[in-house]
Amino acid sequence: MQNLVEKRKQIEKFRQSSSLSPMHAELLGQSIHSSWQRSRTAEIPQGRSAAPMLPVAKQAPNALQQALTHCAEDLKHIAQQSSMVVAVGDVGSTIIWTASSQQMQSAAESVHFMEGGQWKEELVGTNALALSLKTQQSSCVFSNEHYMASIHDWVCYAAPIIDPYSKQILGVIDLSTTWKNHNSLGLLAAERCASIIQSALQEQYKQQLYIRAFSASQVLFNGKVLVMTPRQIEILTILALCPQGMTLDTLHQALYGERKVSIGTLKAEMSQLRDVLGGMLGSRPYRILANVEADFLLAEQALDAGYTESALKLCSGVFLAKTESPFLCAWRDCLESRLSDAIFKANETDVLLRHVARFPEAIDAVERLIELMPKQHPIHQTLLKQKLYGSS
């Protein structure tokens, strides 16, 4: 206990420092140090004591929410037994599910550590839930390492929840209690809870189809890569974007447009595709009978929710770069337009810098960074040259 008191005093000294030195980074840990720097430059209202709340909208449950219904009792038991509050956040750090012990319930409610609470770093500062998503690793934030004073009495352990098949991060789980109950096994407990959810995901993914359409396109069925032609991947992508199903004529128009390809050719394609999928392809209308997930659907959902960073991570290349399908080309144009619009509204320079590092030709991100970065910053001149080079 004495060690924890000393730790709090040491952290408080760092907090009072006008600038954070490399020594601070070493003693605090690089991830906390970086988070403090980001929090200090974010426009977080002074005296904010609770996370902003997002109205809980009624919508079809996603894979993570469905998995939670299967393991909720296990997670509730862990919360009760450990005197903690357990929360699951989505990829944008908004809490979508919680279970709390009696000891933590009122404290959790008072700071909006509950369903609908938005725990983005730029809204509430340093916290384990957002930090784990930012670093894509397990995170512990102790006491006054938190930015908001209202949670200085807390210690939080968080771990990312990773899709067992696509390996994409679907969200994060956070276990929180009072700092006096800090335990070095807390991170292991968070990772164990993440694995409980991942097991539930694996169980519900029987008859699961996953489509990758950015960079190298690929289709996984029940976790195994299928050998497919580019045309078959195009068909599945169209059907994934139209879950209500399509008639043969509509699908033909979406796939081929004005190209002179017979209906019989498409019928033969559909027959072969049904064989590859073990019969999981319905007809009249044509539709995928398996559970469908896809990187482009996740990207669309991220943009719908305003999660620019998550959308940029998912868009790891050009969507079906070689497709000639008029439907898919139009959808790609729409996605790229929405992504560009989100980039011009983004304020997180670190997110945009990472995007430009991966895609130097992303002139929209370069232009937004030029607007955001101070003119005296060394990167500013580099960006101006990049813009000049990219537009020439």
Automatic annotation (TrEMBL):
Gene3D superfamilies: 3.30.450.40. This is OmpR/PhoB-type domain-containing protein. It comes from Acinetobacter bouvetii DSM 14964 = CIP 107468.
